[in-house]
Amino acid sequence: MLPQGKKQITHSLKSQQIHMKKYFLGLAVAALSLGLASCDKKDEPKNPQQGQVKTVVIDASDYTKYVYFSFEEGKVVSTTAWDDEAHKSQTNWDLGLHRYDFRTNSGLSGKGQGGAVETSSENINDKITIPAADQFEVDKSQRQLVEFSHGADGAKTRYEDISTNLVLTTTQQITMQDGRPVYKIIKKGAITLDMGGHGSGGGPSTTLSNKVYLVRTASGKFAKVKVTGYSTPVKGKDGSVKPVSGHITLQYVYPVQ
Prior knowledge:
This protein is an alpha+beta fold. The protein has two domains: 1-44; 54-253, no CATH class. 16% of the residues lie in helices and 42% in strands.
């Protein structure tokens, strides 16, 4: 049996050894954590923004204007009159918007490599295989409403055959009967304004396709695009808030590999 003093010394040494083990174990865990964090940072993609879903609201409410958006810059790059031809020679834009009409930098709209194709997906996060080049439809011509105003004599309207993309834009036939336009929808696009009930008390109706579209840009890259809204609340002079149509909300992912 050890004397009382020696017992106390032995107990003290054991306690010190336990504390030292805990101390070095703590250092080892800390070093391992730092090492793992360092590895994680090395494994991160160089461009973590690539592939993120972005949202933009574009004011395309003016019947007399086309607004041009660049996916590369993530912003509107120009706004021109509907009959301005300058956009056709420019490659700094990828998507043109005019109310519910859309252009890509292709075909009759521009000299770029643009075009569009509708996918079967309704989720912007879905992985989508890029189809063959000939599956993308380039811009053609269709009659569009380029002037609309209300006056003492009623509504004033003007229609012109101008370029548009007939995948993104609803394909419709517009004829005049008794001085009034008659609309016939051929194929629905991203936004469909159905005027079938207009003039008979039913009023027009607007619907979204909810589809994801692949848009080929002016430079030949690709963006996933989904239209999620066609109006935005605006506060009037009287303080009331009302939805104003022609403000287009887009979700997009760019670039898509």
